[in-house]
Write a structure and sequence with these properties.
The protein has a six-stranded parallel β-sheet, with helices on both faces. It is an alpha/beta fold. The chain contains twelve helices and 13 strands.
Amino acid sequence: LGVDVVFAADDNVVGEQAKAAVANMKDGDVVLLQNTRYRAEETKNEDNFSKELASLAEVFVNDAFGSAHRAHCSTVGVTQYLSPCAAGYLLGKELDFLGNAIDNPVRPLVAILGGAKVADKLNVISNLLDKCDTLIIGGGMAYTFMKALGHSIGDSLLEADKVDLAKEMMDKAKAKGIKFLISVDNKVGKEYKPDTEAMVVNSDEIPDGWMGLDIGPKTQQLFADAVKDAGTVIWNGPMGVSEWDNFAAGTIAVATAIADSNAISIIGGGDSAAAIQKLGFADKMSHISTGGGASLEYLEGKELPGIAALNDKK
């Protein structure tokens, strides 16, 4: 495209270099500013810095979905002083895929949630129970649900204060006719380290002194079967300690099942996106989100401040 990029490196962000670069711009030029986090006002969304940023431009286009859940000067404050304020192509794509998956999905809608803690995804689970046809829970947070079922979970990760809530969620899913799937077997380890002694046991038979670190082969098949006939799949969070090769099989199995399906597939950033990229499945996915935290908040049903501030979202 013949674009020339000028880097304005002042720690002050809107310093003399930046102002001079903007003043001397020609058609096809791009001025790249220093990281706005160098200014303490940025994360506080303070008005004076918002005005400074706005003084460099005539219109505002936000294409940073990964920051859209933050009410900062560069995502929200600047929109008070520029018009129009529009979504970029990437941000628009995120809204199209995530929005349709939640509000108008091709059914059945299968949601797969992993990660360590129930507390991190509590609102997401609650919102998806009103949207999806099948909800799959993996990763460390699954053991709190197993405990709610009365299973012995050994030394596995447990949020004791969330056990009753986990039971309520499973009861809600049953009442609404939603399939709620958790591990039926697990790969457990003696210690929390990559080369620990390991074995596979049923989910209601994890012995004391052992901890669940991945889903087992029967669960891998159970989850893959649920994905096979899906119309839309949303995946956010690994099935185990996927950064360790010895406990990555569950996450790999889920990624493979999604890649092999005909479903519209939406990967919610973070560890899930990393797994997809590592396995070379990126081109088989409909959409890989660029914002882990932003996609989670969107799946919770929250209005993201960086998006709400725009007057043109298409």
